[in-house]
Amino acid sequence: xxxxxxxxxxxxxxxxxxxxxxxxxxxWQGSLTVTAGSAAISGWTVTWTFPAGTVLSSSxxxxxxxxxxxxxxxxxxxxxxxxxASASWGFLASGNPVxxxxxxxxx
Length: 107
Description:
The chain is mainly beta and 107 residues long. The protein has strands at 14-24, 27-36, 44-49, 56-60, 63-65, 69-73, 86-94, 103-106. It has a single domain, classed as Immunoglobulin-like (Sandwich). The chain is built from no helices and 8 strands. Strand 5 and strand 6 form a beta hairpin.
C-alpha cells in the first residue's frame, strides 16, 4: 500500500486532503477527506490540478468534473458537516500517486 498525503490548505471554513490508499502499475486509488473548520458548513467544493501524466478516471460519493484540473462538490447526503466533522469520497487515477494542493471552499 502506498500512502501519499497532501498538506491541506485551510480556508477557515473547511480543509481537504488526498491520501493514496492503493497503487498498481499505471494507476492508483485516492481518498479525499473534507473537514469542516470551527463552524458547521452546509456544503463544500474542492479543486486541484494533477501534474502531467496523472488523470482522474472515475469517482464516487461526489459530483466531479474535469480529469486533470478537477472540481468536486458534495452530494445531498454528505455536504452538511458539523464543526470539525469530516466526509470522504474516492477516485481512481492514472499515473503514480501524487499529492496536489487541494483547495476547499465551504457553502
